[in-house]
Amino acid sequence: MRIVLGVGGGIAAYKVASLLRLFTEAGHDVTVIPTEASTRFVGTATWEALSGNPVSNSVFDDVHLVNHVRLGHEADLVVVAPATADLLAKAATGQAGDLLTNTLLMAHGPVLFAPAMHTEMWQHAATRANVETLRGRGAAVLEPASGRLTGADSGPGRLPEPQAIFDAAMALVQGRSDYQLPLAGRTVTISVGGTREPLDPVRFLGNRSSGKQGVALAVAARNAGATVRLLAAHMEVPAPAGVEVQRVETALELREAALAAAADSDVIIMSAAVADFRPAEVSDTKIKKRDDTADPVITLVRNPDILQELVEKRNASRAGSGQLVVGFAAETGDSQGDVLAYAQAKLQRKGCDLLVVNHVGMDKVFGQDSNAVVILSRAGSEPQEASGTKTEVSEAIIRRISFELNHVSPRA
To answer: How far apart are CA 399 and CA 178, in angstroms?
Structure first.
Protein backbone atom coordinates (compact mmCIF):
# COMPACT_ATOMS: atom_id res chain seq x y z
CA MET A 1 0.00 0.00 0.00
CA ARG A 2 1.24 3.52 -0.82
CA ILE A 3 1.06 5.79 2.21
CA VAL A 4 1.80 9.50 2.49
CA LEU A 5 2.87 10.35 6.04
CA GLY A 6 2.61 14.07 6.76
CA VAL A 7 4.56 15.30 9.77
CA GLY A 8 3.43 18.50 11.52
CA GLY A 9 5.59 20.97 13.39
CA GLY A 10 5.17 19.82 16.96
CA ILE A 11 7.55 18.24 19.44
CA ALA A 12 5.61 14.98 19.13
CA ALA A 13 7.15 14.61 15.66
CA TYR A 14 9.83 12.41 17.21
CA LYS A 15 7.19 9.76 17.99
CA VAL A 16 6.23 9.58 14.33
CA ALA A 17 9.51 7.81 13.58
CA SER A 18 8.07 4.80 15.42
CA LEU A 19 4.84 5.09 13.42
CA LEU A 20 6.84 5.13 10.20
CA ARG A 21 8.64 1.99 11.33
CA LEU A 22 5.31 0.24 11.94
CA PHE A 23 4.15 1.12 8.42
CA THR A 24 7.36 -0.01 6.71
CA GLU A 25 7.66 -3.22 8.73
CA ALA A 26 4.10 -4.06 7.65
CA GLY A 27 5.32 -3.88 4.05
CA HIS A 28 3.91 -0.49 3.03
CA ASP A 29 5.65 2.04 0.77
CA VAL A 30 5.75 5.32 2.68
CA THR A 31 6.52 8.80 1.41
CA VAL A 32 7.13 11.24 4.24
CA ILE A 33 6.19 14.90 3.75
CA PRO A 34 7.35 16.98 6.72
CA THR A 35 6.32 20.59 7.12
CA GLU A 36 9.15 23.11 7.22
CA ALA A 37 8.50 23.66 10.94
CA SER A 38 8.67 19.93 11.68
CA THR A 39 12.22 19.68 10.32
CA ARG A 40 13.33 21.74 13.32
CA PHE A 41 12.34 18.75 15.47
CA VAL A 42 13.27 15.82 13.18
CA GLY A 43 15.44 16.28 10.09
CA THR A 44 14.73 15.00 6.60
CA ALA A 45 17.68 12.59 6.81
CA THR A 46 15.83 10.61 9.48
CA TRP A 47 12.73 10.28 7.34
CA GLU A 48 14.73 9.25 4.27
CA ALA A 49 16.69 6.65 6.23
CA LEU A 50 13.58 5.10 7.79
CA SER A 51 11.34 5.24 4.71
CA GLY A 52 13.88 4.47 1.99
CA ASN A 53 12.33 7.25 -0.12
CA PRO A 54 13.44 10.81 -0.89
CA VAL A 55 11.88 13.49 1.29
CA SER A 56 10.81 17.02 0.38
CA ASN A 57 8.37 19.64 1.60
CA SER A 58 8.57 21.96 -1.42
CA VAL A 59 6.34 22.01 -4.49
CA PHE A 60 9.39 23.18 -6.47
CA ASP A 61 11.46 20.02 -5.99
CA ASP A 62 11.22 17.54 -8.91
CA VAL A 63 8.73 19.78 -10.66
CA HIS A 64 8.71 17.46 -13.69
CA LEU A 65 7.10 14.76 -11.52
CA VAL A 66 4.25 17.14 -10.55
CA ASN A 67 4.48 15.86 -6.98
CA HIS A 68 1.91 18.31 -5.60
CA VAL A 69 -0.69 16.47 -7.70
CA ARG A 70 0.79 13.00 -8.09
CA LEU A 71 1.38 12.13 -4.43
CA GLY A 72 -2.21 12.72 -3.39
CA HIS A 73 -3.59 10.95 -6.46
CA GLU A 74 -1.45 7.85 -5.97
CA ALA A 75 -1.74 7.51 -2.19
CA ASP A 76 -3.93 4.73 -0.85
CA LEU A 77 -3.84 6.46 2.53
CA VAL A 78 -2.70 9.83 3.91
CA VAL A 79 -1.82 10.07 7.60
CA VAL A 80 -0.92 13.36 9.29
CA ALA A 81 0.85 13.09 12.65
CA PRO A 82 1.23 15.17 14.64
CA ALA A 83 -1.66 17.20 13.25
CA THR A 84 -1.06 20.56 14.91
CA ALA A 85 -3.72 23.23 15.37
CA ASP A 86 -2.11 25.11 12.48
CA LEU A 87 -2.24 22.10 10.16
CA LEU A 88 -5.86 21.31 11.04
CA ALA A 89 -6.80 24.92 10.31
CA LYS A 90 -5.00 24.89 6.96
CA ALA A 91 -6.58 21.58 5.98
CA ALA A 92 -10.06 22.72 7.01
CA THR A 93 -9.79 25.96 5.03
CA GLY A 94 -8.25 24.33 1.95
CA GLN A 95 -4.92 26.13 2.03
CA ALA A 96 -2.15 24.93 -0.29
CA GLY A 97 1.02 26.66 0.80
CA ASP A 98 3.39 23.69 0.79
CA LEU A 99 3.68 20.13 -0.50
CA LEU A 100 1.71 18.57 2.36
CA THR A 101 -1.33 20.86 2.14
CA ASN A 102 -1.33 20.46 -1.66
CA THR A 103 -1.29 16.69 -1.21
CA LEU A 104 -4.21 16.85 1.23
CA LEU A 105 -6.26 18.72 -1.36
CA MET A 106 -5.45 16.13 -4.01
CA ALA A 107 -5.96 13.03 -1.84
CA HIS A 108 -8.41 10.55 -3.33
CA GLY A 109 -8.11 7.90 -0.60
CA PRO A 110 -8.84 8.01 3.13
CA VAL A 111 -7.17 10.67 5.26
CA LEU A 112 -6.38 10.28 8.96
CA PHE A 113 -5.34 13.13 11.26
CA ALA A 114 -3.71 12.37 14.64
CA PRO A 115 -3.83 15.66 16.58
CA ALA A 116 -1.27 16.81 19.13
CA MET A 117 -1.20 20.22 20.77
CA HIS A 118 -1.67 21.97 24.11
CA THR A 119 -4.98 21.31 25.86
CA GLU A 120 -6.31 24.86 25.47
CA MET A 121 -5.51 24.80 21.77
CA TRP A 122 -7.34 21.48 21.32
CA GLN A 123 -10.36 22.71 23.26
CA HIS A 124 -10.50 26.11 21.54
CA ALA A 125 -13.70 26.70 19.58
CA ALA A 126 -11.75 27.35 16.38
CA THR A 127 -9.93 24.01 16.56
CA ARG A 128 -13.12 22.13 17.41
CA ALA A 129 -14.87 23.75 14.44
CA ASN A 130 -11.98 22.79 12.15
CA VAL A 131 -12.13 19.20 13.39
CA GLU A 132 -15.86 19.00 12.77
CA THR A 133 -15.37 20.47 9.30
CA LEU A 134 -12.79 17.83 8.42
CA ARG A 135 -14.91 15.02 9.84
CA GLY A 136 -17.90 16.34 7.93
CA ARG A 137 -15.90 16.01 4.71
CA GLY A 138 -15.12 12.37 5.48
CA ALA A 139 -11.66 12.70 7.03
CA ALA A 140 -10.88 10.71 10.17
CA VAL A 141 -9.66 12.82 13.09
CA LEU A 142 -8.57 10.88 16.15
CA GLU A 143 -9.06 12.21 19.65
CA PRO A 144 -5.71 13.09 21.26
CA ALA A 145 -4.52 11.15 24.27
CA SER A 146 -4.59 12.63 27.77
CA GLY A 147 -1.45 12.92 29.85
CA ARG A 148 1.75 14.88 30.35
CA LEU A 149 2.30 17.60 27.77
CA THR A 150 5.31 19.79 27.03
CA GLY A 151 6.36 21.40 30.30
CA ALA A 152 4.54 20.68 33.55
CA ASP A 153 0.98 20.64 32.18
CA SER A 154 -1.21 17.57 31.71
CA GLY A 155 -4.47 17.04 29.87
CA PRO A 156 -5.93 16.02 26.50
CA GLY A 157 -3.55 16.92 23.69
CA ARG A 158 -0.87 14.22 23.63
CA LEU A 159 -0.24 12.47 20.36
CA PRO A 160 -1.86 9.00 20.50
CA GLU A 161 0.70 6.21 20.73
CA PRO A 162 2.13 5.08 17.37
CA GLN A 163 0.44 1.68 17.66
CA ALA A 164 -2.95 3.34 18.21
CA ILE A 165 -2.47 5.52 15.12
CA PHE A 166 -1.34 2.50 13.11
CA ASP A 167 -4.39 0.49 14.19
CA ALA A 168 -6.75 3.32 13.28
CA ALA A 169 -5.05 3.77 9.91
CA MET A 170 -5.39 0.09 9.09
CA ALA A 171 -9.07 0.23 10.06
CA LEU A 172 -9.59 2.85 7.36
CA VAL A 173 -8.31 0.72 4.52
CA GLN A 174 -9.25 -2.85 5.40
CA GLY A 175 -12.80 -2.76 4.09
CA ARG A 176 -14.41 -3.05 7.51
CA SER A 177 -17.59 -1.22 8.43
CA ASP A 178 -15.53 1.14 10.60
CA TYR A 179 -13.89 2.43 7.40
CA GLN A 180 -15.52 5.84 7.85
CA LEU A 181 -14.97 5.82 11.62
CA PRO A 182 -18.68 5.54 12.46
CA LEU A 183 -18.18 6.58 16.08
CA ALA A 184 -16.37 9.82 15.23
CA GLY A 185 -17.72 12.57 17.46
CA ARG A 186 -19.30 10.05 19.86
CA THR A 187 -18.39 9.57 23.52
CA VAL A 188 -18.29 5.95 24.68
CA THR A 189 -18.02 5.03 28.36
CA ILE A 190 -16.89 1.47 29.11
CA SER A 191 -16.70 -0.21 32.50
CA VAL A 192 -13.98 -2.84 32.65
CA GLY A 193 -12.40 -5.36 35.01
CA GLY A 194 -13.67 -6.84 38.27
CA THR A 195 -14.86 -4.94 41.31
CA ARG A 196 -13.44 -5.78 44.73
CA GLU A 197 -15.54 -5.57 47.90
CA PRO A 198 -13.41 -5.22 51.07
CA LEU A 199 -13.87 -7.48 54.08
CA ASP A 200 -11.09 -5.87 56.08
CA PRO A 201 -7.91 -3.90 55.23
CA VAL A 202 -6.35 -7.07 53.77
CA ARG A 203 -9.09 -9.20 52.24
CA PHE A 204 -11.81 -8.64 49.66
CA LEU A 205 -14.50 -10.45 47.69
CA GLY A 206 -13.57 -10.46 44.02
CA ASN A 207 -13.98 -12.35 40.79
CA ARG A 208 -11.94 -13.81 37.95
CA SER A 209 -12.28 -10.93 35.47
CA SER A 210 -8.98 -9.91 33.84
CA GLY A 211 -10.28 -6.86 32.00
CA LYS A 212 -9.05 -8.14 28.63
CA GLN A 213 -12.43 -7.96 26.92
CA GLY A 214 -13.16 -4.47 28.20
CA VAL A 215 -9.76 -3.17 27.12
CA ALA A 216 -10.26 -4.72 23.68
CA LEU A 217 -13.63 -2.93 23.49
CA ALA A 218 -11.93 0.36 24.36
CA VAL A 219 -9.38 -0.15 21.56
CA ALA A 220 -12.11 -1.01 19.04
CA ALA A 221 -14.20 2.02 20.03
CA ARG A 222 -11.16 4.29 19.89
CA ASN A 223 -10.23 2.95 16.45
CA ALA A 224 -13.80 3.62 15.31
CA GLY A 225 -13.24 7.29 16.12
CA ALA A 226 -14.91 7.56 19.53
CA THR A 227 -13.78 9.51 22.54
CA VAL A 228 -13.43 6.67 25.03
CA ARG A 229 -13.78 6.87 28.80
CA LEU A 230 -12.72 3.78 30.73
CA LEU A 231 -14.13 3.13 34.22
CA ALA A 232 -11.46 0.70 35.32
CA ALA A 233 -11.87 -1.72 38.20
CA HIS A 234 -9.19 -4.36 38.83
CA MET A 235 -7.47 -5.33 35.57
CA GLU A 236 -4.61 -7.67 34.75
CA VAL A 237 -3.80 -5.81 31.52
CA PRO A 238 -2.82 -2.16 31.00
CA ALA A 239 -5.28 0.43 29.75
CA PRO A 240 -4.80 1.30 26.07
CA ALA A 241 -3.35 4.59 24.86
CA GLY A 242 -5.65 7.34 23.71
CA VAL A 243 -8.47 6.81 26.23
CA GLU A 244 -9.45 8.53 29.46
CA VAL A 245 -9.10 6.27 32.51
CA GLN A 246 -10.96 6.64 35.81
CA ARG A 247 -10.05 4.09 38.47
CA VAL A 248 -12.69 2.49 40.70
CA GLU A 249 -12.56 -0.42 43.13
CA THR A 250 -16.00 -1.28 44.52
CA ALA A 251 -19.44 -1.59 42.96
CA LEU A 252 -20.55 1.56 44.79
CA GLU A 253 -17.60 3.52 43.39
CA LEU A 254 -18.39 2.21 39.91
CA ARG A 255 -22.05 3.20 40.32
CA GLU A 256 -21.11 6.77 41.22
CA ALA A 257 -18.67 7.04 38.30
CA ALA A 258 -21.05 5.47 35.76
CA LEU A 259 -24.02 7.66 36.68
CA ALA A 260 -21.83 10.77 36.42
CA ALA A 261 -20.33 9.67 33.09
CA ALA A 262 -23.76 8.96 31.63
CA ALA A 263 -24.46 12.69 31.44
CA ASP A 264 -22.35 13.16 28.30
CA SER A 265 -22.09 9.60 26.91
CA ASP A 266 -23.62 8.52 23.62
CA VAL A 267 -22.90 4.88 24.48
CA ILE A 268 -22.44 3.15 27.84
CA ILE A 269 -20.99 -0.36 27.77
CA MET A 270 -21.11 -2.13 31.13
CA SER A 271 -18.59 -4.90 30.54
CA ALA A 272 -17.16 -4.91 34.06
CA ALA A 273 -17.75 -7.92 36.29
CA VAL A 274 -19.62 -6.16 39.08
CA ALA A 275 -20.09 -7.91 42.43
CA ASP A 276 -23.75 -8.67 43.13
CA PHE A 277 -23.12 -8.58 46.87
CA ARG A 278 -20.81 -6.85 49.37
CA PRO A 279 -20.11 -7.46 53.06
CA ALA A 280 -22.64 -5.73 55.30
CA GLU A 281 -19.80 -4.69 57.59
CA VAL A 282 -16.14 -3.98 56.84
CA SER A 283 -13.70 -4.54 59.67
CA ASP A 284 -11.27 -1.71 60.41
CA THR A 285 -8.64 -4.27 61.37
CA LYS A 286 -7.61 -7.60 59.91
CA ILE A 287 -10.00 -10.38 60.91
CA LYS A 288 -7.89 -12.75 63.03
CA LYS A 289 -8.06 -16.55 63.04
CA ARG A 290 -7.93 -17.69 66.66
CA ASP A 291 -8.41 -21.14 68.13
CA ASP A 292 -10.60 -19.77 70.95
CA THR A 293 -13.16 -18.06 68.70
CA ALA A 294 -15.91 -19.37 66.47
CA ASP A 295 -15.72 -19.29 62.71
CA PRO A 296 -16.66 -15.82 61.42
CA VAL A 297 -20.04 -15.32 59.79
CA ILE A 298 -20.00 -12.85 56.92
CA THR A 299 -23.33 -11.25 56.12
CA LEU A 300 -23.75 -10.01 52.56
CA VAL A 301 -26.03 -7.30 51.23
CA ARG A 302 -27.05 -6.60 47.63
CA ASN A 303 -25.17 -4.08 45.56
CA PRO A 304 -27.25 -1.67 43.47
CA ASP A 305 -28.13 -2.72 39.91
CA ILE A 306 -26.00 -0.18 38.03
CA LEU A 307 -27.09 -1.25 34.57
CA GLN A 308 -30.77 -0.94 35.42
CA GLU A 309 -30.20 2.46 37.03
CA LEU A 310 -28.44 3.70 33.90
CA VAL A 311 -31.39 2.61 31.76
CA GLU A 312 -33.87 4.26 34.12
CA LYS A 313 -31.85 7.48 34.15
CA ARG A 314 -31.65 7.46 30.36
CA ASN A 315 -35.38 6.84 29.97
CA ALA A 316 -36.23 9.64 32.38
CA SER A 317 -34.12 12.17 30.50
CA ARG A 318 -35.31 13.64 27.22
CA ALA A 319 -31.73 14.73 26.49
CA GLY A 320 -30.56 11.13 26.80
CA SER A 321 -33.20 9.63 24.52
CA GLY A 322 -30.63 8.72 21.88
CA GLN A 323 -28.20 7.11 24.31
CA LEU A 324 -27.38 3.43 23.77
CA VAL A 325 -26.91 1.26 26.87
CA VAL A 326 -25.14 -2.08 26.45
CA GLY A 327 -24.94 -4.72 29.16
CA PHE A 328 -22.83 -7.84 29.59
CA ALA A 329 -24.06 -11.08 31.11
CA ALA A 330 -21.68 -13.79 32.33
CA GLU A 331 -24.00 -16.79 32.60
CA THR A 332 -23.95 -20.50 33.35
CA GLY A 333 -26.82 -22.89 32.69
CA ASP A 334 -28.37 -25.18 35.27
CA SER A 335 -31.31 -27.54 35.65
CA GLN A 336 -33.73 -24.62 35.54
CA GLY A 337 -32.61 -23.20 32.19
CA ASP A 338 -29.82 -22.72 29.68
CA VAL A 339 -27.54 -19.72 29.23
CA LEU A 340 -29.68 -17.94 26.63
CA ALA A 341 -32.88 -18.42 28.61
CA TYR A 342 -31.33 -16.73 31.63
CA ALA A 343 -29.85 -14.01 29.41
CA GLN A 344 -33.18 -13.25 27.71
CA ALA A 345 -34.82 -12.87 31.10
CA LYS A 346 -32.02 -10.58 32.24
CA LEU A 347 -32.38 -8.45 29.09
CA GLN A 348 -36.06 -7.89 29.76
CA ARG A 349 -35.43 -7.20 33.43
CA LYS A 350 -32.61 -4.72 32.88
CA GLY A 351 -34.15 -2.95 29.88
CA CYS A 352 -30.83 -2.23 28.15
CA ASP A 353 -30.69 -1.99 24.35
CA LEU A 354 -28.15 -4.75 23.76
CA LEU A 355 -26.96 -7.56 26.01
CA VAL A 356 -23.69 -9.36 25.25
CA VAL A 357 -23.86 -12.88 26.67
CA ASN A 358 -20.87 -14.97 27.74
CA HIS A 359 -21.09 -18.65 28.70
CA VAL A 360 -18.56 -18.64 31.52
CA GLY A 361 -16.83 -21.37 33.51
CA MET A 362 -13.64 -22.21 35.36
CA ASP A 363 -11.70 -22.42 32.07
CA LYS A 364 -13.88 -20.18 29.90
CA VAL A 365 -13.69 -16.46 29.10
CA PHE A 366 -12.05 -15.09 32.27
CA GLY A 367 -8.37 -14.44 31.60
CA GLN A 368 -8.50 -16.10 28.18
CA ASP A 369 -7.48 -14.44 24.90
CA SER A 370 -10.47 -15.76 22.96
CA ASN A 371 -14.19 -15.49 23.50
CA ALA A 372 -17.55 -16.41 22.02
CA VAL A 373 -20.60 -14.25 22.66
CA VAL A 374 -24.20 -13.85 21.61
CA ILE A 375 -25.58 -10.31 21.21
CA LEU A 376 -29.23 -10.01 22.18
CA SER A 377 -31.38 -7.01 21.27
CA ARG A 378 -34.29 -5.58 23.23
CA ALA A 379 -35.82 -4.63 19.88
CA GLY A 380 -36.26 -8.34 19.15
CA SER A 381 -33.85 -8.83 16.25
CA GLU A 382 -32.23 -12.23 15.75
CA PRO A 383 -29.41 -13.08 18.19
CA GLN A 384 -25.99 -12.33 16.68
CA GLU A 385 -23.03 -14.61 17.37
CA ALA A 386 -19.41 -13.46 17.44
CA SER A 387 -16.34 -15.51 18.24
CA GLY A 388 -12.58 -15.40 17.90
CA THR A 389 -9.96 -13.39 19.73
CA LYS A 390 -11.24 -10.83 22.17
CA THR A 391 -10.07 -8.18 19.70
CA GLU A 392 -12.22 -9.72 16.96
CA VAL A 393 -15.20 -10.09 19.27
CA SER A 394 -14.83 -6.46 20.38
CA GLU A 395 -14.73 -5.25 16.79
CA ALA A 396 -17.96 -7.16 16.08
CA ILE A 397 -19.62 -5.60 19.14
CA ILE A 398 -18.52 -2.08 18.16
CA ARG A 399 -19.76 -2.64 14.60
CA ARG A 400 -23.16 -3.66 16.01
CA ILE A 401 -23.23 -0.61 18.29
CA SER A 402 -22.32 1.64 15.35
CA PHE A 403 -25.14 0.13 13.31
CA GLU A 404 -27.63 0.68 16.14
CA LEU A 405 -26.59 4.31 16.55
CA ASN A 406 -26.68 5.10 12.86
CA HIS A 407 -29.82 3.19 11.85
CA VAL A 408 -32.16 3.23 14.85
CA SER A 409 -34.40 6.23 15.46
CA PRO A 410 -34.02 8.04 18.82
CA ARG A 411 -36.30 6.78 21.56
CA ALA A 412 -39.41 8.73 22.42
So the answer is: 7
For residue 345, the enclosing domain spans 187-287+295-407
- According to the model, what pLDDT value does residue 361 have? 47
pLDDT confidence of residue 40: 93
Is residue 412 included in any domain, yes or no?
no
Specify whether 125 is located in the same domain as 233.
Answer: no
Mean pLDDT, 10 residues at a time, over the chain (412 residues)? 93 94 90 94 94 84 64 87 96 93 91 91 92 88 78 78 87 56 84 94 90 91 86 91 89 96 94 93 87 82 95 79 88 69 88 87 55 89 87 89 71 38
**Could you give the CA distance from residue 168 to residue 63 in angstroms, rounded to a whole number?**
33
Among 104, 177, 246, 190, CA closest to 404:
177
Residue 182 inside a domain? The answer is no
Cβ count within 10 A of residue 281: 11
* Pairwise CA distance, residues 240 & 230, whole Å: 10
Please state the separation of Cα 252 from the chain's center in Å.
Answer: 24
Alpha-carbon span 137 to 311, nearest angstrom: 34
C-beta separation of 199 from 209 below 8 A: no
Q: Which of 173, 208, 227 is the last residue of a domain?
A: 173
Domains held by the chain: number: 2
Q: Answer whether 347's CB lies under 8 Å from 328's CB.
A: no
Q: Catalytic residues, which ones?
A: 207
Considering the domain architecture, whether residues 13 and 154 belong to the same structural domain is answered as: yes
For residue 243, what is the DSSP state?
S
Strand partners, 198: 204
